[in-house]
Amino acid sequence: MSRPNILFLLIDCLRADAVLGQDRGAHTPTLDRLVRSGVACTQAIASASSTTPCVASLLTGTYSFVHGLRSIFGLKLNPDIPSLVESFREHGYYTAAEVSGPLFPETNLDRGFNTYNFREGAAYLSTPWGTDFRQRLQNEEFRPPWFLFLHLWELHHRRHILPAFRGRRFGRNRYERALSSLDAELARFLAVLPDNTLVVIHGDHGEHVVKTDFQYRLYRLIRDLAGRKTFKREGHEMDVSEDLVRVPLVFSVLGDGRDGQNEQNGQDEIDAQASLSLPTGKRISQLTRQIDALPTALDLVGIPVPSQIHAQSLKPAILDDSQLGLEAYVEAFLRIRSDQRDQRVGWRTSEWKYVYAPHNPHLPAELYHLSDDPSEQRNLVSRHPEVAQLLQRRIEDLQHGPLAATPGLIMTEAEKAEVEKRLTELGYM
Question: How far apart are CA 51 and CA 101, in angstroms?
């Protein structure tokens, strides 16, 4: 048997607690089934709080100061940084991407893909595009084994909710109802995929969400009266709070795992030429990182993981419960056009989060002890300056490490004009 197909399912704005939390309001039987039949990383940390830098880190296994994409406008992937997608292609995979939102081909994120299909934001799984895409998969448009990077836009503002899911039993707010609606479409989509497909479920970043409809209407009224400069309570790209950087990361295998009947087999050696087997219903609570997702997929199907990256494979934790001791670098820009004064840089451990603004001395540094203060309400910089200094040194050591920082590649004026037009249509500008 050949290597398994791989579906990398990236759901834009998907929060960790929406899939793995205890207080979930969405109705998600499809996602729940995949979690039960696979391995879920409950403390996965995104590298940034906006889509394009996150996806660049995901596809390269490097952080933004190396790959060069630090915003969703004006910059392109560093041409000297390999894409991990190229490793799949070099080992016989047909590589395809179906993307939307700000993942424009002008960013050079199409590197390594045999096909990179960009679609407009309104093309959802429930629209004719989704019907056509399922048909293409049933017709075996992609030569197996294939690696499919599928980016879905249903949760992004303005949230796509089918009429049948607009009632409160499908969620307390539009975000939860959009997830319930998407989950039903995912069931139809996954049904056409072949057995022995490795499915990786992930979010590029999380989302600030106003919890109830009443609170949201009040918030929108205040915003309408006071103007757009009023504090933004819904969305992302604002900071590196836990709502924005904690994302789900789930590995599951279709086949017996569709109905959750796989026997746990975590100690078995993965044979790339046989059916892929993963533990069933396993949760990994140690810190993991967004950049580790693709190296893990490479490792699980028997492809060597490149060494000159920030990322590493999570396979030892998945199969052998190894403690990896990982810590995460995080970053955010508050504006589309990447004003350095708005940059936030942070370091996340299993216990602490430290954040500072390297180009704006007027923004105070922040330090939170997450186990005691998960909502990040008590800034402890003044009480624990030694912790803040230690974590800032780790940031600086990484930035001055063996992977050199790059200024990023600038788009041409024609590319900028085209991207600006698309971002305006998406509501970013």
Answer: 8
- What φ, ψ does residue 217 adopt, rounded to 5°? -60, -40
The full set of domains in the chain, from first to last, is 5-326 (3.40.720.10), 329-411+422-426 (3.30.1120.10)
Alpha carbons 419 and 58: distance in angstroms, whole number = 21
Lookup: tokens for 266 = 């975590």
What's the Rg (C-alpha) of the chain?
Answer: 21
Whether the CB-CB separation of 47 and 346 falls below 8 Å is answered with: no
Residues 107 and 345: their CA atoms lie apart, in Å, by: 22
Taking only the tens of pLDDT, the chain with its 429 residues reads: 589 999 999 999 999 999 999 889 999 999 999 999 999 999 999 999 999 999 999 999 999 999 999 888 888 999 999 999 999 999 999 999 999 999 999 999 999 999 999 998 789 999 999 999 999 999 999 999 999 999 999 999 889 999 999 999 999 999 999 999 999 999 999 999 999 999 999 999 999 887 766 565 565 566 556 665 555 566 667 789 999 999 999 999 998 544 443 434 333 333 434 479 999 999 999 999 999 999 999 999 999 999 999 999 999 999 999 999 999 999 997 666 556 777 899 999 999 999 999 999 899 999 999 999 999 999 999 999 999 999 999 999 999 999 988 877 899 999 989 988 888 888 777
Nearest to 248 by CA among 401, 41, 6: 41
* Burial 280-291, CB ≥16 within 10 A → b, else e: bebebebbbbbb
User: How many other β-carbons are positioned within 10 Å of the β-carbon of residue 229?
Assistant: 7
∠ Cα 373 378 383 (to 5°): 110
Neighbours of 29 (CB within 10 A): 12
Q: Give the C-alpha separation, 360 to 364, whole Å.
A: 9
Q: What is the pTM of this model?
A: 0.91
Task: List Cβ neighbours of 392 (8 Å cut-off, separation of 6 or more).
Answer: 347, 354, 356
Q: How many residues are recorded in the chain?
A: 429
Distance set, CA 206 to CA 209, 237, 241 (Å): 9, 10, 9
Spacing of C-alpha 113 from chain mean position: 19
36, with CB counted inside 10 A (0-12, 13-18, 19+), is middle
CA distance 378 to 207: 21
Peptide bond into 306 cis (omega under 30): no
